[in-house]
Design a protein that fits this description.
By secondary structure, the protein is an alpha/beta fold. It is about 40% helix and about 15% strand. A 6-stranded parallel sheet has the order 5-4-1-6-7-8, with helices on both faces.
């Protein structure tokens, strides 16, 4: 039985493609790079922005930081709300909450934006803990986000011994996400990894990452999360 569940945001609870890809286009344009095809920018959904600008467009160091700043220039006022909650998510969260499961959000997106998005879609109250990255770049890697979310959700006591490899595998804690980074974050802390293939993972990505469970729809996700209650 899952007593604690962490959810990724982008590609898991909401579909952020329009907002994220439009803001990446805007930032690239400011950097003198034209990319008319937003579909090519889907890999930006999930990992830290700075990593993506470096990996896909060679913008590292100061250039990468500037690209992130341009991205947020548009995102904080427009892109933030170019987003849609996946059908059935609100109802699923309500059922999980009523079942007494403790819920958290663990996202690589800055916490301030995560909170605004959850509030915008009326689901902020479903979560006991909301953790993201910091605007200054701290806690941008998914394992760091997962660690902080677990520390807050489990009040820190269960986190002892992880670095030394002594932490027991937790069958009652799950991390739900659509990318390999979510699976890797779960494995780093020996919790169950639940991959959702309706998000933005490439074909075979979740399988290759070793997700413990993979579901195709929001409906199936709800069934799997509730089945052991």
């Amino acid at each position: 039985m899952y007593r604690y569940i962490l959810f990724d945001l982008d590609g898991t609870l909401t579909d952020p493609k329009l907002g994220i890809t439009s803001c990446v286009q805007y930032a690239l344009g400011k950097m003198g790079i034209e990319e008319p095809d937003r579909d090519k920018l889907e890999p930006f959904i999930g990992p830290p922005l700075l990593d993506s600008f470096r990996d896909y467009y060679g913008l590292d160091g100061e250039k990468g930081q500037q690209a992130v700043a341009y991205y947020r220039e548009r995102f904080r006022t427009i892109g933030l709300f170019e987003n849609e909650i996946y059908p059935g998510i609100s109802q699923m969260l309500e059922k999980l909450q009523k079942a007494g499961i403790h819920l958290a959000v663990a996202s690589s997106k800055p916490t301030v934006f995560v909170t605004q998005i959850l509030e915008y879609f009326g689901i902020l109250s479903c979560f006991e803990v909301v953790v993201g990255s910091e605007l200054d770049g701290r806690r941008s890697q998914k394992d760091e986000v997962v660690r902080e979310a677990l520390t807050q959700l489990l009040h820190g006591t269960e986190m002892e011994g992880k670095e030394s490899g002594n932490m027991a595998y937790r069958q009652d804690v799950a991390m739900v996400g659509d990318r390999k980074f979510d699976v890797e974050g779960a494995k780093a802390y020996r919790i169950v990894s639940v991959g959702v293939s309706y998000g933005y993972a490439a074909a075979g990505e979740l399988e290759q990452a070793g997700a413990d469970v993979i579901v195709k729809t929001v409906e199936e996700l709800g069934e799997r999360l509730l089945e052991s209650i």
